Amino acid sequence: MIVNKKLQLVRAACMLLLIVSISITASAQKVPTKTIYFLAGPKDHAGPEGSGRHETRRDLLVMQRCIDSISNATGVKIVTKFSYMRNALDIEDLKGVDAIIVECSAEGSSKERAHPLFPPSGDNTRTYDKATLAYLAQLDSLHKAGMGIMVLHWGITTTNQKATQYYLSWFGSSSLSGYTRNPLGYWEVKPIEAAKNHPILRGVGPFNYKDEIFSRMVVNPGDPYRTDLLTGTISKSNQGASEPLGIATAYDKNGARGVLWGGMDYHSALLNENYRRFVLNAILWTAGIEVPKGGVKTNAKGLQLSASKPDEFDRLKPEGFVLK
After folding, report:
1. How far is CA 126 from each of CA 121, 129, 158, 181, 324, rounded to the nearest angstrom?
2. Is 33-316 a domain of CATH 3.40.366.10?
3. 80, 156, 226, 271: which has the fewest Cβ within 10 Å?
C-alpha cells in the first residue's frame, strides 16, 4: 500500500512537471517577434565618414546596437537588420518587417540614389516610371498593413510630387520649399506639454544641444492622427533667429505608424541621454512595440561616440548656453 502511494505521488509529480514544461514552452512560443530594419543612405556631404556630421551609417549602427541591447523591453523578441546604400526597387527584403528606420539625404538632392526608398527624380519631379510606381504601391500596402516608417534628418525632404504624396499619407506632414527650414546652431528642445502622455516621450526631458534640424513642416491643421512631440527654439543659427518650431511628429492612422525627426546631423548628439532616449523610444513605437515605463534603457557598450568636433558653427553658440 505504501509503495503504491509513493508511486502515485511520483506519477503526480511527473505529471505536474510535464504540465509546467508544456506551459512554459507554450508561453515562450507566444512571445511575438518584431523586426526593425535600419536603412542608411550614402554619406554624400559634410566631409568623409568620421567627420562627425551626416553620419548616416554610423548613426544607425549605434541605434541598432542600442536596440539590440535593450534591458527593459518585455514580452517581445526584437530582431534587427541593417543596410547601407540600398538602391534596388526590391520589395522582398521589406516583407515581414515591422518598422523601417531611414536616415539619408533628400530623395531629390542628387542625380544618384540618395534615399533608400525612393530613386532620384531626374528631370521629372511630378511622378516616377511604371516600375517605380508599382514598387511604391507595394511599399504603401506594407505600411497600411502595419509596417511603421521613421525618417530622420534631411530624408524628411521630398521634391518629387509623388514622393510628397506618400509622405503626407505616411506622416501627415511634408516639407515645402521656401517654408520648411533647417537652422544649424544650438537648440533648446522641449517635449510639448499636450503630448506628454505619448509613449515616445516616456522618460524624455528637455535637452540643449548642437544640431541642424529640418523643421516647420506642412500639416493638415487638427489632423486627429498626428501628434506633435517636440518644440525647438534657436536664438542664433546659420539662418538667423527663429520662433519656436515643431521639430518632431508621430502619426498613427489605423495602426500604420510614421515618425519624422528632422535632427540627427551631428553624430555626437547621441551622447545626450534625453535625445538618445527620444530616438530609441520612437523606434520601438514605430515598430508597434510597447515603450517601457520611463523610456528605453540599453546596455549597449563600445559605441565609439565622441564629442562634437570644433567647427565654423561654434561661433553661433549663445553666451551662457549650456549643453544638457
Report:
1. 8, 10, 11, 22, 43
2. no
3. 271
